[in-house]
Amino acid sequence: MRERELSDLGERERSSKTRRRMSSSSLLLFSPTTKVLHHHHHHLLSKPILSRPNRKLLLLPPPMQASKNNSGRGGGGGGGGKKDSADPPDRIISAACYLYPFLDGVQYGRYVLAQLPALQAPLAPLLPLVRLFKSFPFSSFLLFLALYFAVVRNPSGFSRYVRFNAMQAIVLDVLLIFPGLIERSFSPRGGVGLDLVMSMDSTVFLFLWVSLVYGSVTCLLGDVPRLPIVADAADRQVM
To answer: Which residues contact residue 156 at a Cβ distance below 8 angstroms, ignoring those fewer than 6 apart?
Structure first.
């Protein structure tokens, strides 16, 4: 009898626990918080966490930087042999500038022209200019002033191409001071001293002749002649 009462009591407790669980689950199912959480969870799942990148934007090339345009008219002073946009009059004037140091130093060719008569034929067309240049006592100094102040220091009247070549011719003529001083200081009558003077004069004349041919032809072709040592000094003077 007692055992039956205990079993009935246990069944009642189990049934009460089951009712409590069912009531709690029903409250959770119909609570507004659960609905909100469920709706929020469904909204998050409906949208992707990370949006896909736009393929059109990825395929676009990167923006190209605009290149700086540093070119200008007569900017061939530092071109180092590159083509310049010099006009034909600028080329002719620039080529004529290299006659100045050659005419001023033609006397240094007296020894080499005597030893090599074949060099006299290319110089024959220049003989009238040589006589005209040597006929005036201050022709070298006057031509120096004209080239420096009227051409090199005149950016509004001449392009940088012309002014650079004129400055190269001036610097080349200024360098002739040194062999002239050596000749005046040492005037040997013969022996080793005379051989040294003859070698020096011949070297100076050949350098002037090569500079004339190279500078004039290069200017007529529209290129920028750059003589050794002389070009750097000309670059510093021409703005």
So the answer is: none
Give backbone dihedrals phi and psi of 9, rounded to 5 degrees, phi first.
-65, -40
Instruction: Give the span between the Cα atoms of 123 and 120, in whole angstroms.
Output: 5
Q: Where are the alpha helices (DSSP H) in the chain?
A: 2-30, 32-46, 55-59, 88-97, 99-104, 110-115, 120-123, 127-135, 139-145, 160-174, 177-185, 191-220, 230-237
Are the CB atoms for 161 and 226 separated by under 8 Å? no
113-159 residue pLDDT tens: 999 888 889 999 999 999 999 998 899 999 999 999 999 999 999 99
Q: Say if residue 166 is exposed, middle or buried (CB neighbours under 10 Å; 0-12, 13-18, 19+).
A: buried
Residue 56 confidence (pLDDT)? 42
Contact 134, 104 (CB under 8 A): no
**Listed residue (217, 223, 226, 234) closest to 85, CA to CA:** 223
